[in-house]
Amino acid sequence: MTAAILANKRLLATLQLMADAGIESAADGLSQMIGRRVIMTVPKVTTLPFCEVPARVGGAEVPVVGIYLACNGDLGGHIMLILQQEEALRLVDLLLDQPEGVAVEFDPLARSALAEAGNLAVSFFLNAIATVMGISSRPSPPAVIVDMAGAILDIMLVVAGEFGDEVLLLETMFRDADRHIKLLFWMLPDLLPLQDLVWGRG
Amino acid sequence: MEGAIAVGLGELAISARPESVLAAFGLGSCVALIAFDSTRKIGGLLHALLPMHRNGDRNPTKFVDTGMIEMLAQLSALGVRPKQLDWWIVGGAQMLTAPGLSDRFNIGAQNIAMAQAAVERHQLRLVGQDTGGYQGRTVRLFVADGSVVVRYVNGQQSVLPNPVGS
Fold first, then answer.
1. Fewer CB within 10 Å, N or C, chain B?
2. Is the Cβ–Cβ distance between B94 and B108 less than 8 Å?
3. Is the pLDDT of residue A192 over 90?
4. Contact B101 A51 (CB under 8 A)
């Protein structure tokens, strides 16, 4: 069944539309928040075997920072923003409007700044999707997790793993050219509601 | 560590080569089941994602219950008897602890419980365990001597109890 969902062209096209609308808006939101232009890659909607997911962030043991939000509503799913740890600290400096190198650890202030960035990016993302497509969902409070990439990704993969060996992944990279910050944006939509959404709405 | 065989999500590896190191990198809520036959120097590592097999899923090693059966079958195909094996359970952390957003099902705890139940059901000998908590782990089994080493993201390492060395 999962394979059938993943192979459905109409569903993938719908997702791509949502991704395009949502991601551009999220980039705008981040740009406003840090006061610099944030550029992004064209959002990709792909499927891949779940065991290959950690390799996309450089391996399961790489220390990263994940900002996780669940979304609930017409479009359910899991969103994770992933940064390398040094780049996350640079982002904290930007968010707190301080010179590069001031943030050296993930203390409560740093975590709360990152949580706020995640919250804002995802709110912009979901709001644009609601405006453009009439699909409304709410984000959960953000969680900031500093750990090995594999451990962080387990949060999303346990859900995807119940439905098969492949995940449906919406992926974009945000980039701040000046400070060399790369922020990977992933969404794993819940497959069953997505299916209802596409067929149910015609 | 160079040369380690990475056992990915939902995978199982068995090795009888003394130079082998079997590793599960970045375990979060996932659980690793590790077995070692100290007389014949044969080791196995299962990296399971979920506690219980779902109907129709074709990948038994994604789950603790069916993965364990597959692991025992592969080991016995090499002539290993379950009674000869020492077992370790590693992983099963709770990765999400933010207020209002706790891991709905606490899969980590379920994975540990299922692994322990499987060890009991098959009457196996559990010699060490490093489970639960709120942090990810990497675990390695050195087939040369059966040592099991756990590493955390802060670089801290611990060697699990090993009946051979003690």
1. C
2. yes
3. no
4. no
How large is the ipTM? 0.91
**A-B contacts at Cβ under 8 angstroms:** 110
- Give Cα A60 distance to the centre of its chain: 18
DSSP output for B119-162: HHHTT-EEEEEEE-SSS-EEEEEETTTTEEEEE-TTS-EEEPP-
Query: Cβ contact (<8 Å) for A50 and B96?
Result: no
Q: Does A51 touch chain B (CB under 8 A)?
A: yes
Instruction: Extract the tokens encoding B111.
Output: 């994975």
Rounded to the nearest angstrom, the minimum Cα separation between B143 and chain A is 21
Provide the residue type at A60 as one letter.
A
A170 touches chain B (CB under 8 A): no
CA distance B20 to B39: 16
**d(C-alpha A190, C-alpha A202), whole Å:** 19
Give the residue from chain A lying closest to B59, CA to CA.
A165
Q: Apex CA B126: angle with CA B125 and CA B131, to 5°?
A: 165
Return phi, psi of residue B63, to 5°.
Answer: -115, 150
pLDDT for B106 equals: 87
Do B49 and A145 count as a contact with CB atoms less than 8 A apart?
no
Q: A158 and B107: CB-CB below 8 Å?
A: yes
Question: What are the tens digits of pLDDT across the range A78-121?
Answer: 999 999 999 999 999 999 999 999 999 999 999 999 999 999 99
B145-164 pLDDT, tens digit each: 999 999 999 999 999 988 86
Beta strand extents in chain A (DSSP E only)? 39-40, 44-49, 63-73, 77-84, 137-139, 143-148, 166-176, 181-189
Q: Assign B166 a pLDDT band (cuts: 50, 70, 90).
A: very low
